[in-house]
Amino acid sequence: MLSVEDLVRAEAAGQRLKYVYFWGHEPRRDGRIGASCLSQWWPAEFTVDGLTFPTAEHYMMHRKALLFGDEDTAARILRARHPNEAKTLGREVRGYDNEVWDANRFDVVVAGNLAKFGQHALLCRYLLGTSDRVLVEASPLDRIWGIGLTADDDRAASPSTWLGANLLGFVLMAVREQLVGESLIGGREKRDITIVEYDPAWPARFRSERARIRKALRDNALRIDHVGSTAVPGLAAKPVVDIQVSVADVEREDAYLPQLEAAGYHLRVRQPDHRMVRTEQLDVHVHICPAGGRWERDHLLFGDWLRATPADRAAYEKLKRELATRKWFDMNQYAEAKGDLIDEILGRAKEWADRTGWTVAHPR
């Protein structure tokens, strides 16, 4: 669905639509990724054709200037220190033709956001986690890219009463679907979520798979760790053993992917700074990440904290059991539903790490 009219027809046909509203680019107070990352003004530097753009707004206005042959303004936009400055310069493009821009603007903004979300793992994960939800720019000031209403306006609850075209929302939904195709090999999966009691056999399964991975990768695997819920004694979990393999450069797939595939694993996820392969039985997931990176640190720290903190371990299990009773559009939606609690727990874990001197090299 890529228009308000599509949504109105779906709603009239009885389809229950769920929404994610966003407006503004300020980060959450706790520093976690939220809906504000969907904004064109969100600071997330990315590179296209050798040029670096501070925000998607810079990219949009730069491409707008180039569309009309105004290279001088395009260069000034690249130097703009704030997205509002880039937007203002975009209004000064020489030779501008509204009809030409209207015909090209959607594709331009799609391209910019594909680069933005495609080059930032955490942003990509957030966007994919919105699954089938309708993304809505609830800007009361914009009736082209937004809906012309705030999220708390009663009229925002139905596309039939929106005042704007919500083009940015539809752009992001198009980007989401393209990223699903690029990052989730085989597309979306809808699987039943089953949580089982902790199985003492899980560590042995990890050791077996570790030996298999070490044989395949040799020194290319800088470290191999048991991560996720099955690595936490006493914690109920999905019966899937998660393994983290740290490598020097995730983007150099030739150093590890053919070897893992030859060992019987199949590629499922390809995202910035993260790949995931799994067994044919889907009971082992192997995550490849950069050594020394945030992915490596956060997953190791999260596990160490849960093993040391019964209260957070119990809270995490309680949430997983509750989520397992619901129906999910896909596995990304289930994972995103755990995100707030994971981030909250990880925040406490990071404070603990700072106090105690915990590091990846020297865990406590």
Low-confidence stretches are: none
Strand order of the largest sheet: 5-6-9-8-7
Strand content: 5-15%
Classify the helix fraction into a percent range: 40-55%
At the third CATH level, what is the topology name of the largest domain?
Tetracycline Repressor, domain 2
CATH top level of the largest domain? Mainly Alpha
The gyration radius over C-alpha positions equals: 23 Å
Reported CATH architecture of the largest domain: Orthogonal Bundle
Mean pLDDT: 94
Class of secondary structure makeup:
alpha/beta
Catalytic activity: 2,5-diamino-6-hydroxy-4-(5-phosphoribosylamino)-pyrimidine + H2O = 2,5,6-triamino-4-hydroxypyrimidine + D-ribose 5-phosphate; 5-amino-6-(5-phospho-D-ribosylamino)uracil + H2O = 5,6-diaminouracil + D-ribose 5-phosphate
Domain NADAR: 21-179
Organism: Kutzneria kofuensis
Pfam families: GrpB, NADAR
Topology:
Elements lengths: L3 H9 L6 E4 L23 E3 L2 E3 L2 H12 L3 H9 L3 H8 L7 H21 L2 H9 L4 E4 L29 H17 L18 H16 L5 E5 L13 E7 L9 H6 L3 E6 L2 E5 L5 E7 L3 H15 L1 H14 L7 H7 L1 H18 L8
Parallel strand pairs: 1-4, 6-9
Antiparallel strand pairs: 2-3, 5-6, 7-8, 8-9
Helix pairs in contact: 2-3, 2-4, 2-5, 3-4, 5-7, 6-12, 10-11, 10-13
Pfam families: GrpB (PF04229), NADAR (PF08719)
Catalytic activity: 2,5-diamino-6-hydroxy-4-(5-phosphoribosylamino)-pyrimidine + H2O = 2,5,6-triamino-4-hydroxypyrimidine + D-ribose 5-phosphate; 5-amino-6-(5-phospho-D-ribosylamino)uracil + H2O = 5,6-diaminouracil + D-ribose 5-phosphate
Protein name: RibA/ribD-fused uncharacterized protein
